[in-house]
Amino acid sequence: RKDVSMNQSQGSLFSKLLVPLIIVVIVVYLIASAWAGLRNPYQFTVAYADTMETSVTASGWVVRSEQTVSGAEGVVQLLRNQGEKVGKGQAIAMVYQSETDVESQAELIQLEEDLEALQYATNAESPSGTVLDSQILSAMSSLRNASSTGDYSGLATQTANYRQLVLRREYLLSSEANAAMTQAATDLQARYDALAGDQSGATAITAEESGLFSSYVDGYENLLNPDKLEGLSPKDLAAFSQLTPETEANTLGKLVTDSVWYYAVTVSGDTVSLFETGDSVDVFFDALSETLPMTVYSVGEIQNGEMVVVFRSSQNDSKVEDLRQESGRLIFQSDEGLRIPKEALRVNEDRETGVYVVLAQKARFRPVTMLAEDTDSYLVQANPTDEEDTRILREGDEIILASEELYDGKVVR
């Protein structure tokens, strides 16, 4: 019992001495680490790929040649899709006197498709044999590709083509099908002729000029046009925001009648040196999240510290046909490179400009060329002296930030 009691006393004493000792060791380690950190003059960061641009924020109006399309009394059936090109004199919509006329027209269209398929199948000059088989396989492949890619823009045409080919094969293989299709074509033609002769209640709305159709109208079609751009002042441009244009109730949409369009913006007069007629400028539109190339069309006079700059584009793009009052950026220069803090840039003993990176715990020099800068950073690119120079700065390299002297090969860790 005495031995057991003595062992317990010794264990208790050992525990009492060990715990404070561990605490002392930890405290000493933390103090030493903090002291080493204070004594180490080096800090590090990572080079990463980025873009810097010289740009001016802008807000203004998109101006284009437009013509509204009006409807008529009755049931209107629109024939054109958004952004579809319409030739002069072509139908944009059909107006029917009643729903019955609409149903008759729909039946007439279906009859026409069925007749075309049957006439193709029964035509002696239509393909047969291996040529027909090849065309059927090609049509099946087109349908499969459309399904896998999700591109259904030509689905109606592809389906009609496949249907004609299948009917043609059935017509050639079966005498019963031959007779049935011939009779069906005769019956469909009679029904088609009867309906076509009773379409006096349908009226076509045609395009007075060729252009791209859009169902979006905002009332500015007749207020904002290229003729209004001459001598436009900042006050004139601001006045458009105060207007409350109205659109006629029976308006079906509009035709954009010219591929050329304009973007008129108000900018600070301090930026006048950036703009010269004929210069190319990339314009980033916030609404599109996209940059489009444009040309400086005109530069107005400075009035009360502001001026109007008009940009021009001949890029006939359906994405821009509905733009109107838009904000964005006018980009004069855009550079891609590696972003580094300004304090990382140094000049070595050979008068080369560059940065020091960490390689195997040592500082290694990497020559660079400056592309652009902002308040805190430079955008740079590697600048080796020749093809054999391996001192190339790369994305992800750890860069040294230091106030003390550095040289190639110095241990920094």
How would you describe the overall organization of this protein?
By secondary structure, the protein is an alpha+beta fold. The chain is built from six helices and 17 strands. The chain has helices spanning 2-39, 99-122, 129-149, 155-173, 175-196, 234-239, and strands spanning 42-46, 48-70, 75-78, 85-86, 91-96, 202-206, 211-214, 251-268, 280-285, 290-299, 306-313, 325-341, 346-347, 353-359, 362-373, 377-382, 398-402. The chain has a six-stranded antiparallel barrel with strand order 2-8-11-10-9-12. A hairpin with a 6-residue loop joins strand 10 and strand 11 (306-313). Helix 3 (129-149) runs antiparallel to helix 4 (155-173). The longest helix is centred in the N-terminal third of the chain and has 38 residues, at 2-39. It is extended and about 100 Å long. The protein starts with a helix and ends in an 11-residue tail after the last strand. Mean pLDDT is 85; it is low at 33-38.
In short:
With 413 residues, the protein is α+β, with helices and mostly antiparallel strands. 31% of the residues lie in helices and 34% in strands. The chain has six helices and 17 strands.
